[in-house]
Design brief:
globular, alpha+beta, about 25% strand, single chain, five-stranded mixed barrel, about 30% helix, two-stranded antiparallel ribbon
Amino acid sequence: MSKKKKFFIASVVILSALIVTAIYEMRPERDISEKLLPKEYQGRDAITGLGDISSSRPVEKVAGDERVAGDERVEGDEKVEIVEEKLPADEKFKKANESISDSFKKHGADVVLKPGDKLVEKEKYHGKYTLNEPDFSKLHPLNYQGLKKVYTYFRLKESMPEVVVNKLNGAAVVMTGAVMPVDKIPEDGNFTAFWLSNPSIVLAGCVFCNPPTLADIVYAYKDRGENPFKFEREKLFKQVVLVRVTGRLFFGPETIKDQTFLFSILVTDIEVLN
């Protein structure tokens, strides 16, 4: 067999493999349930490089950028005082905060975030999904990478993937993201709903100039009559406020007050992470 023929056969094999791989990746419904529900949530997909906050807790003692020493750990029979080193500011997080601050200065305090997607008539149909009873002792950890798989399926098929929806609609979930306004930020800082958004979209520039896709935002809300969400109003204008929410996940699409979304969480618990 000539070298030219061998090269041709090898090229055909490689090209075939690439085509098969491309087709496989364009089928997000395949194993989508496993991809949406990673065994161990690390938080990296939700914040893409801003740092792992999956196990974050508010720092009790802080002096500027320096953590205050004083905690102890046990090594053998001796107690050793922990001395924390001065931590440099995270440049990416700093950039995100500057982006939020500049966005509000440019557009005003009344600006709200709206998704950039326009749905066709078929996509507006709300399917009749299985409603699962929530088990808050076994939370499903969600991240934006998983939501993007569902979103991709939705835009390709004009419907939701049954394997995911039937398993998760109404189920108890936990998710990390940033707080962005659905309505005008109230003077008292009390919200009835907000966008739980992918903080990485802030890094891309002005979120109000370049609206996110429906894969980057989740409509987080509370039942009527429950205590509203409480955030520091001025803080929202100056920095990315990161939260972890627990609640029931529901699939859309839905439209409330001219705001369309694919994913919503009826929040039962919320933790501010910064």
